[in-house]
Write a structure and sequence with these properties.
Layout: E1 5-7, E2 18-20, E3 22-25, H1 33-45, E4 49-51, H2 59-69, E5 77-82, H3 90-101, E6 106-111, H4 121-133, E7 137-143, H5 147-156, E8 163-167, H6 173-185, E9 189-193, H7 197-200, H8 208-218, H9 222-232, E10 236-239, H10 244-252, H11 260-311
Parallel strand pairs: 3-4, 3-10, 4-5, 5-6, 6-7, 7-8, 8-9, 9-10
Antiparallel strand pairs: 1-2
This protein binds 1,4-dihydronicotinamide adenine dinucleotide and ligand LYFO2JCZ.
């Protein structure tokens, strides 16, 4: 099945929407003409969902590329995020984002981190609800929220978040599953960013073997298999690249068919990698504690020597 749409929990309301299940992210693209070109290319190869943020410094470039695409506003899905930068309130920040993007509404507006929900989550969320009611954004959501943050929010919310954008990849999926399932209970769609971490930041781990086997069998690139794996988890996949060939590969990954066994093999290798990581962290902490204890002992022994030397 190609990259499809996922219904949001506000889909029944007049302003409600569905969200394209793959997004092209603009973090680290920089600003200036080159980033306009990257977003242009992403749209030209088939991305219809652009994920940006106040903090990425390139909303204006994303907006320019969207205009240059010639697509009707309704045919492009724009997510941006409140980053609590530039000293702007949430209301001021969305106005600034809309101006930079050159649109009169965004499709999804997220609080980028729980820490940005000031003075507290219920108060900040009430403002988000107001923005939705005013039509400045079709849907509202959060990012990097954990279960306690969502509980706090839900306890006071009139409108539940439509989405929670969090890091999801094969090495952390097991740890993120309770959060994803908690979201599901309240109709909150999880969006997974940095799905390619197993090859970009953690190469050489247990996933490499099944990934290479599956890629060879399907005549696909490893990054395509990782995106197809993330898609199989029912989350919105938020990815990026500056290379046009890779952009095309990402879109084509929506048609990749992974078997139940392929998905299970990546799941298992991901869990194994996570267990190895936990063991490494434990050993590192134990070594650190031993070193601290040894230094403390040496200090005590030295003080005793000094004390005895003075006394006798
Ligand atoms: N809400 C949040 O706090 C965050 C949101 N994001 C969003 O997610 C988007 C994607 O985040 P990324 O971490 O960039 O995601 P990603 O995991 O998709 O990594 C993308 C990078 O992987 C590279 N890549 C692809 N195939 C590769 C291969 N075979 N070997 C080596 N490198 C390869 C790409 O060229 C690109 O540089 C961001 O642009 C942003 O929109 C990202 C981080 C945090
Ligand atoms: O979203 C990607 C990383 C990130 C998280 N918070 C901020 C704020 C400003 C720029 C990037 C980010």
């Amino acid at each position: 099945m190609p990259w499809d749409l996922i219904k949001l929990n506000d889909a029944g309301s007049c302003a409600g929407t569905s969200i394209p299940s793959v997004a092209y992210g603009t973090w680290r693209l920089g600003s200036g003409d080159q980033s306009v070109d990257y977003v242009d290319e992403a749209i030209s190869v088939g991305f219809s969902h652009i994920d940006t943020a106040q903090g990425y410094g390139n909303e204006a470039e994303a907006g320019k590329a969207i205009r240059e695409s010639g697509l009707a506003r309704k045919d492009i899905y724009i997510t941006t995020k409140f980053s609590n930068r530039d000293g702007l309130t949430i209301e001021e920040a969305i106005q600034s984002s809309l101006k930079k993007l050159g649109v009169d509404y965004v499709d999804l507006y997220l609080i980028h981190w729980p820490e940005y929900a000031q003075p507290d989550i219920p108060t900040a969320w009430a403002v988000m609800e107001k923005l939705k009611a005013q039509g400045l954004t079709k849907s509202i959501g959060v990012s990097n929220f954990e279960i306690p943050h969502l509980e706090t929010l839900i306890n006071s919310a009139k409108v539940y978040p439509a989405a929670n954008q969090i890091q999801i990849h094969a090495y952390n999926f097991h740890d993120q599953l309770p959060l994803i399932e908690f979201g599901r209970k309240y109709g909150i769609v999880s969006e997974g960013y940095s799905p390619l971490i197993p090859i970009t930041r953690m190469p050489g781990g247990p996933i490499d073997k099944p990934l290479n086997e599956i890629s060879s069998r399907l005549n696909a690139k490893p990054e395509q298999v990782l995106l197809a794996w993330a898609k199989s988890k029912g989350v919105v996949v938020v990815t990026s690249t500056t290379k046009k060939e890779r952009m095309e590969g990402y879109i084509a990954a929506g048609d990749l068919h992974l078997t139940v066994e392929d998905i299970a093999a990546i799941d298992e290798a991901g869990n194994q990698g996570a267990r190895q990581q936990t063991a490494r962290t434990f050993i590192r902490r134990a070594v650190f504690m031993c070193a601290v204890a040894a230094i403390a002992l040496a200090c005590v022994s030295l003080s005793m020597d000094v004390f005895l030397a003075y006394k006798y």
